[in-house]
Every structure is written in structure tokens, then in C-alpha cells.
Amino acid sequence: MAEWLTLREAIAANVRDGDSLAMEGFTHLIPFAAGHEIIRQKRRGLRLIRMTPDLIYDQLIGAGCAAKLTFSWGGNPGVGSLHRFRDAVEHDWPQPLEIEERSHSDMANSYVAGASNLPFAVFRGYTGSDFLRVNSRIRNITCPFTGEVLAATPAVRPDVTVIHAQKADWKGNVLLWGILGVQKEAALAAKRVIVTVEERVERLDAPPNACVLPGWTVTAVCEVPRGATPSYADGYYERDNLFYRLWDRISRDRQTFNGWIKKHILETGDFREYLRLLSESPAVCR
Questions:
Q1: 50 SS3 class
Q2: How many angstroms separate the CA atoms of 270 and 78, rounded?
């Protein structure tokens, strides 16, 4: 059953050097607080997985936490490139980064395969594309019933999945709503699952057709208000668009990036302290 822990305790107990780590959330509910704690605890050699790596993985890569990235799109949404990601790929800074690029449909189906305890995903896709040239793990398979040639790729089965959600009850049952992306599938595919939530409640009072992860699918639950900042949590707070624009400037230069990571993450005790520091800083220093 799920165990209520502090975020520091949950990361220390469940995220290990060399783990394959998925941190999912699509446009909102992106688990930034957990990502910061991983940087704070200086995890190394992580094999990161995410459909749409954005700022959270730019920070992890630039901080030296990552050895590999499996993904289907990467960028600073609405702004431009991920400069720490690009620097790692193009110049091996702060260390070489192996990349495995897939398509969105591939990643989604591969998470479903992992959640279904299947070894690979089968789907229609990649026809006429160059993906097979850059990813040897994409194979063709012939349907035994129709003879149709389909694409097959290995299931995604992370050692650890981390997601953010709106609520959890005292038993560790988790409720999330809004744009779900592949949070549910990423959680069900993983060996260990950490969920940060906006609040702990006595009752979920889940509406019909809401997404509820039962406590037995979750390893650790952590109450971290505003834990998805600067992304948003539907029903709680809006996206910090200014931060996404500022990140383009912060992340372009190695020295500026290192200074920001040191001041805002490594020298803060937890995410609450990070948020307080951020609120006290002029916009130009964020």
C-alpha cells in the first residue's frame, strides 16, 4: 500500500543512481518539485523517459543527473529550444547524453504495453519516416491474421515513475483530472511510483469517470503544494508563462545555469524554500 512520506524521504528511498525514471505530465501536473529533489540529492546515471521533455528534464540534464533520454519531442513549450539538452547532445556537457527518439504514438503505446505487462507494443506507424534509420529498436512485425506489416517497439517499464496530482486520501488513493497525458499508464508500468499531490484529504469525492490510482498501485505519496510550478495544476493555479520565457535566458549560458541551480535548488532545503526564494527574487534574477 502507498506510504505517506516527505518528498525528501520518497526520493531517497525510491530513486537510485542508474534507474530508468519516467516523470510524466502533459502541459500541467508536471512534477517539478520531485525533479528538484532529485537534483538536490545528486542522483547520477539516470535513464530518463518522457514523452515531451521540457524544462524539468533540461534542469536534470544540465545538473548532470542523466545518462540517457528516451523521448518523442523536446523543447521549451511556446519559447524554443532546451539549451542544456542541446549542449549535452552537441558538446557532451556536462556529460554525454545517449538519446533514443520515438514518436508520440510509439511512446503512448509502449507505456500501455508496459502497464499491461507485455514485452512490446504493436501499432500502425513509422511508415515513410526516417525513424528506423536512427532507432534500431523499432522493428517490423507481420500480423499473423491479416498479413499486415506493423511497427513494434519495446514496452516502456520504468524502474520509477513520478507524477503530480491534485489530491490523495489518507490511504494513498490518488485523484487527478484535467489533461492526463500518460500519467496513469506510466504509473502502472513502473516498479515503483512516487506521487506528489496538492493536498491530502479525508475523502476523494471523485466525480464519475475521474482518474483514480488506487493506493496499492502507488509506492509513496507526498503532500507538496504547488509542486507542479511553473506548470499548472487544474483547479489550483495557472501556468507561470514568465518563467518559461526567463528559462530561455537562464539556460543558454552554462555559468548562468549553474549559478541558478546552485542558488535555487542545491542551496535550498526543499521546494517550499525554493518557491519562497523565487517569490522574493526580481524577475530578472529568477
A1: strand
A2: 28
Show the cell assigned to 209: 469517470
Phi-psi region of 3 (alpha: psi -120 to 50; beta: other; left: phi over 0): beta
For residue 34, give the nearest of 2, 12, 52 by alpha carbon. Answer: 12
Contact 260, 284 (CB under 8 A): no
Residues 70-105 pLDDT 10s? 999 999 999 999 999 999 999 999 999 999 999 999
| C-alpha distances in Å from residue 106, one per residue of 70, 81, 135, 142, 219 | 11, 23, 12, 17, 27
Tens digit of each residue's pLDDT (9 = 90 or more) over 231-252: 999 999 999 999 999 999 999 9
User: DSSP state, 264?
Assistant: I
Order of strands, edge to edge, in the sheet holding 139-142?
120-123, 149-154, 139-142
Q: Give 262's contacts (C-beta < 8 A, 6+ positions apart).
A: none
Report residue 133 as a C-alpha cell. 534509420
Environment class of 248 (CB within 10 Å of its CB; exposed 0-12, middle 13-18, buried 19+)? middle
Whose CA is closest to 195, among 230, 162, 158, 157? 162
**Distance between CA atoms of 189 and 174, rounded to whole angstroms?**
16
Tell me how crowded residue 223 is: count the other CB atoms within 10 A of its CB.
16
**What's the Rg (C-alpha) of the chain?**
19
pLDDT digits (tens, 9 = 90+) for 204-228: 999 888 899 999 999 999 999 999 9
